[in-house]
Amino acid sequence: MTRLSFLLILTVSLTAVTVTTSHMSSGPHIADVNILLPPKMTNPVEYRLQGSDGCFKWSWDHHEILSVLPEYNVTNHCSTSARLRSIAPYSGRKETAVYASDVYTGNVIRCKVFIDNFDRIQIFHNSIKLDLDGLATLRVRAFDSEEVTLPSPHHRWSVSNRSIAQVDSMMGVTHALTLGETTVIVEDTRVDGHSQLSSLNVVLPDTLCLYISLLSTSGEPVEGMEPIPSVARWYVVSGKQYLIQLKVFSQGPYAHEIYITENDDIEFYDNQSGYWKIVPVLEPIASRYSRRSARILKATSEGLGKLTTSLVYFNGHLDTKEVLKVVQEVIVCDQVKFSVEKVGGKSQIILLPWAPAVYQEMELKATGGCAKAASDYKWFSSDMTVVSITAYGVVQAKKPGKATVKVVSSFDSFNYDEVVVEVSIPSSMVMLQNFPVETVVGSNLPAAVTMKASNGAYFSRCDVFHSFIKWKAGSESFIVTNATGEAPVFEKQENSELHALVDGPSCSWTYVYASTSGQALLHATFSKEYPHFDPSFSGPIVLKATSRIAAYRPLTLHQAGDGNQFGGYSVNTAKSDAANQLEDLDRLYLVPGTQLDVMLHGGPERWDKGVDFMETVEIFNEEHAHDNGVHKPHIYSSHGGLYRVLCQTLGTYKLVFKRGNLVGDDHPLPAIAEVSLSLACSLPSSIVVIADEPVNNQDVIQTAIQADRSPGRIHVTPVTVANGQTIRVAAVSISTSGDPFANSSSLCLKWELGNCDSLAYWDHAYDSESSNKCGWERFLVLQNESGSCVVRATVTGFSGSSMADNYSVKLLESSKNFLTDAARLELVSTLGVSPEFNLLYFNPDAKANLSITGGSCFLETIVNDSQVVEVTQSPPGLQCMQLMLSPKGLGTAVVTVYDIGLAPNLAASVVVQVADIEWIKIMSGEEISLMEGSSQSVGLMAGVDDGSTFDISQYAYMNIHVHIEDDIVELFDKDDISTYAGGYVGAQTFKIRAKHLGITTLYVSARQHSGHEILSQAIKVEVYAPPTIHPPKIFLVPGASYLLTIEGGPTIGAFVEYTSIDDAIAAVHKTSGQLTATSPGNTTLVATVYGNGGGMICQAYGNVKVEVPSSAILNVQSEHLAIGHETPIYPLFPEGNLFSFYELCKDYKWTIEDEEVLKFGVPLVGSEAVRRFSYVDKEEVSFINVLYGRAPGRTNVAVSFSCDFISSGSHLGARTYSASISLLVVSDLPLALGAPITWVLPPHYTTSSILPSSAESHGQRDSQSRKGNIIYSLLRNWDEVTEISQRAVSIDGDKIKTKDSNNLACIQAKDRITGRTEIASCVRVAEVEQIRITNKEFPIHAIDLAVGAEIELSISYFDALGNPFYEASNVILHFAETNYPDVASINDTRDTNTIHLKAMRHGRALLRVSIDNRPQKSDYMLISVGAHVHPQNPVLHQGSSINFSIVGSDDQASDHWHSANESVMILHTRSGQAEAVGEGSTQVSFESSGVKLQTTVTVLPGSTLVVDAPKEMLTNVPFPSQGYSFSVKFSDTNDKISTLGSSKEAPYDCRVDPPFVGYAKPWMDLDTSNSFCLFFPYSPEHLVRTIPKLKDMKPYIYVSINASMKEHSHVSGSASASALFVGGFSIMQMGKNIEQLNLTPDSNRTIITILGNTDVEIHWRGQDLLMINPIQKEEFGVGSRVQYEVKVISAKRFKDKIIVTLPSSGQRAEVDVNYEPDERAESEATLTISFWAKVLGSLALFIITAVFFLCFLDRPLGSQPPSTPPPPIAAPVTPERSSPLLLNEQSPRTPQPFVDYVRRTIDETPYYKREGRRRFNPQNTY
């Protein structure tokens, strides 16, 4: 029969039971006295034998067949039950007995136990009523054969439905077969019809549920605790056991528990948790709970784990198994326990004090229960009226009484702990005995009190009473410092437990400060009144506690014996009674055989008889053993504490002296002070001799030890003593550590004198008195002689025989090198004071120090004139070496110093002069160079006129003012704080810091007491930028060169030296900077800037790369070209530019693949340019070519060339390169008729005023701009609605504005009067793509210049197709440079489109301009500097003449001129004068030694140009806004220039000679058709910067204006005119024009600068108020520069006017001067003037009368014109453009102002005498 493991819901419980008899009698008894048990079975059967009313001890017979396990009660540990189990297999019926003995009464109760097989069973229930689906339990009783209950063979079992379940008819074992319900029937065969029924349901399990129950110590579940079902987490307690039960429930809304059979597979897993153990259930609970579904959990340690239980069962079809699982988290916690302080040996009782309105609190702490925070506990108090408790465990005593406080874990209500809290009123207060009662003076003594309850127990805590307890000290020697403050250090947590264990907690505490020594009582008082409304208490609470306290002085050890005469240091024993005046003794050195007294001071005083007082000394050697080397007497001195130390043997010892009170009555802790002394009994390592000292002081000994000594142990520095006296000499022994001995008297000294025969001798009177000629102290008599004498002391041995026997050998070893010393005495008799002369600045705060040498320290000073100088107190410690003087008034005094300490007295005198400053000078040179941001110190020197200078200390009182002309540098004070605009310094040096680049002037001034200001010389200060090498990086081929330059760096008095780190790669000339590449590689260049003195100022670095290129490329700025336009083309290497190789390469072969598309060269109109091009050697510029676009299409351009590279002097051989590039020529549009009138402009650009008569703009819709009759507008579609601000091209007044590129617009011009409308111009917006160097005189890429010549080259910009821009000013950043700046230099301002080029010396240089310094966007021009014929290639008209000359050559001694065709031009062979005689062209050549030059001359038929100068004088002040007009016309026909062509532009050019004076431009009057060259002179400021700095330059210049036709570059003859130019001037201050000067007493001087023509006259009215003097001049004609100092010399308020006139031009300028003085100074000046005015009043009247009378007698017959200055000359006025100029007018006459200027110059010429009255009228001069 198949057995199914279905789970059954049983209504019958098959449990072995016994027939029990209940005993109801009183006293201890047990429930059963006869028990039937089956024998040992597979599943053990246990029976609980229950007892009551007693505490039993169990025993039994036959332990081999029966097991008895007692069970104990949890509360009182008594056993009231026991579990019985048979442990032997069946071998027949057995009988035994179990005895229960009551431990209290002694009664023993016997229970009889039978072990046998069951014979029958019986169901106890006869009828059962069940609800639907309900369950009931049936109890079955079993009987043995003797009718003792057990399973019986008379029972027959059956089921009503065998398809559901089967049952064993004999044993009653039931097997479930399928799901369903049936009835189980049991019958008793002995009784007919006697049966019992039970319902059996077979179901499937649905859920598993775990239950946990706490087990008692006996193993039984705790009574009253219901099992806890599965929840989120179980909390168990470590160390306890728990019963885990598994229950299975069926499906449905009314789930029932399912019986678990033995065939069901149940497993318990604990996931290998180490926090608990899972064990099977054992008896006695095994009989009550299934072994299969229950387990015991033993919690071992704290932690979290998971418990898993599974059930495996068959499903309803019996084909598969199902598994149910349940997982439960279990956390093991520690037992909750109170952490309570143990007081008085009691535990688990907390005692708290209480007083009216005083509520003591105490924080209780608990541990365990898996708590992580205080909120994880729950606190309970059994009586909140006695003790309240907070949620955080803080209890508060409310009133006297008892309460139980319980703490429970928030996670487990069975995990708790309890403590009893008792509240009582304190009955007494005592001082805590944990603290000392004695302390040292100057320290704090801690004290505390605690309280006791009525039973004498200490309270657990009482700190709330701290503020209610008052402290008081009974003596003024003690001060309570912390009576009510926070708890002191001893009350902190780390010490509170210790104190509580000893005496109880601190209720109140304090610190008592001991100010002086003594004893006192410390009182603590607590007083509290009961409230009147509380009748339960009566009377106040008053508690007191006292403690005796004391303070003592620190225990110190002092030396009581003096070693001054015994080879030791001196001690003043007279101070032994005042211990605070003696030095502490911590180390002592004694020589064996000597002794010394020491004295103890301070320490605790004797307390009383009840406390033992101790005073001991212990002696330890290095091995800490007692030693006999110290002798301690047994009898103390009268003062006590006196010890005599006797040194007998060598060694180092430690002496520990102790004094204090031990523990006794009122003295709970010992108070013992101790002091130690290190005693060294040793031999001295050296001795020192002390001379002329009264005693052997420690500092004197240390000075002697540290003195330098010669090889003979003689002091190098002599001791200076005054002769004629007796001095003391002594010696002291010195230890190896350098400390002196206290006593060396056991050693004997030998004293010797060296070279002292006539100087000194021993005083034997002292020797006989001391009766010890080998002692350590002697006296020396000094005679009245000066000189040097040596005193020597040497140790000869021990004076005692015992010591000599023991230590003579060691002493002999030491004396060879060390035990001798000598001092040199310098006998002097002169007292010295230095310096002998001292210049003292007159200032009340000034001080002067005089140095005193010689003599003694007893000085007296006398001044012969106390009105000049006085002696002030010297600083402490310097009275013998220094004398301080203070000035009282101007003058000279003699200061005499007397040495009253010497007999006879010595005297020394010095001269002291008190003076005011008379001159001051800057000592840092005439020039200073500073890098921007750096600083430098500037030194000063000041003195008086006789050459004497002030000491460095006197400058602090001079109030020196530093003046800085420009804000280029700033003054720094001593704290490095900037002082702007100059400031005052108080030292001999001051610091300046460079702020901005430039050059300024610096000088200093100091004011005398009279108010006069003393000035120093002015020095130049240059602030330079950090230097950089240009170019910073360069690429060269081997053999190429480049001239390096320095940008930035100093320029005044500095020079540069260049070096290369590796000369094998690139060498650089040291001074010129010429760089030459030698071999491939990389190296670094260094440029060092040196000053005049040769010191390095700064450095700059650069890099050079040398390499042989492997290939070349052709470069054009744009690969597109329009027809009719040109573009330059040149080769490049992958690195570098043309500078890198152009000098080393040659044989350029240029080819064009399709010459119909492109062509080399530029087609020039006219033969002149062609001829000039042929004059230049094409090979010199063959590295660059020009491409001209001829027809649309694409073609290739190629070049080949060879380069000769040179490396380290050797030739590398020629290398050939070739390169090609493809260019596209773009054709014009078929109807591009507007191209000639199209202006190309860059994007986002605003033009200049290029629209004539169009200056006003109106924001109308048609963008019209009009002025006069012309209206301009943009052509556009009428339907266009774009705003003006958004248009690509717009009109703004007379300017045009552009925005984005690739836009085109046209401008329409309309005459408002006639209505005529035309297209004025078109505008195309394009990007700047190309840059060119343009010059109409040099159309090719080469220029010939003479040395010194200057030329301006224009920079032009083009678009990608080569179209020129109409305007493109400052659109892009262009760079210009030459590879040899020493040949041709560039003045590139970067903000214009012009390059100013100047020829410096003979040679060739390459000029490069580029866009953003890019090699691909560059253009080049070769500059050749040397001698050439001037003018070059002139064009003349027939009949005109020209003068040829050579420019740039110094050798013209044997020159010769020659004309190739004299029918065209006749030439003078020596002078170069030539005349054009016929039409045609010829060559003019010049030959000299080593020079052969030529030029081409073209003679044209027709008339020549004539230029006429204006009649007025030319000047630059005032500036002519319309320029000076030079008329230009033809000489013979009188035709106007405009008749030569139809263009409205002037067909001629105008130039100025010399060019630095100004510039000229052509201008034509369209109304009169007259032509002019307008000359505009430069301002004086510009001339100062640009004029050549040449000597003997005049303030006037003859200016020539040259005019030439544009198609003929040079026209000579009468094509120029000259006029006199007289320069004007301008007045500047701090770089700005001025019209007014405001001066104050703090700033009573200033500097003005006159620029330009400085031959001026300066006048002002107040000669007694203002002084003007020139201080610096730079005279270079019209570009001169003169600085004037304007200084106020009066103290009163005034206003004046400085008038500056230039006689040569009549220019006049005025500067207002305002002076505002201090009010007090002004009032004093007013009183002085008023006084002198009254005194001189009458005398002035008499003088005026006399003068009038004399003048009347001497007056001339004729009238004399008034003496007035000449009227100012009006500025030149440009003539009206409509007035024609006459050709037959004479040359300009000399202007009248210039004639007046010449007359004045002659008048002021020395030795040229005239009558006085002629000076009033220049007309009377000639």
What does this structure look like?
This protein is mainly β and 1822 residues long. The chain folds into 11 domains: 7-202, Cadherins (Immunoglobulin-like, Sandwich), CATH 2.60.40.60; 205-333, Sandwich (Immunoglobulin-like); 337-424, Immunoglobulin-like (Sandwich); 428-551, Immunoglobulin-like (Sandwich); 556-681, Immunoglobulin-like (Sandwich); 686-828, Immunoglobulin-like, CATH 2.60.40; 1109-1225 and 1329-1425, Immunoglobulin-like, CATH 2.60.40.1080; 1243-1325, no CATH class; and more. It is built from 9 helices and 136 strands. The strands form 36 sheets. Strands 18, 19, 21, 22, 24 and 25 form a 6-stranded antiparallel sheet that branches. Strands 70, 72, 75, 77, 78 and 79 form a 6-stranded mixed sheet that branches. It starts with 6 loop residues before the first strand and ends in a 19-residue tail after the last helix.
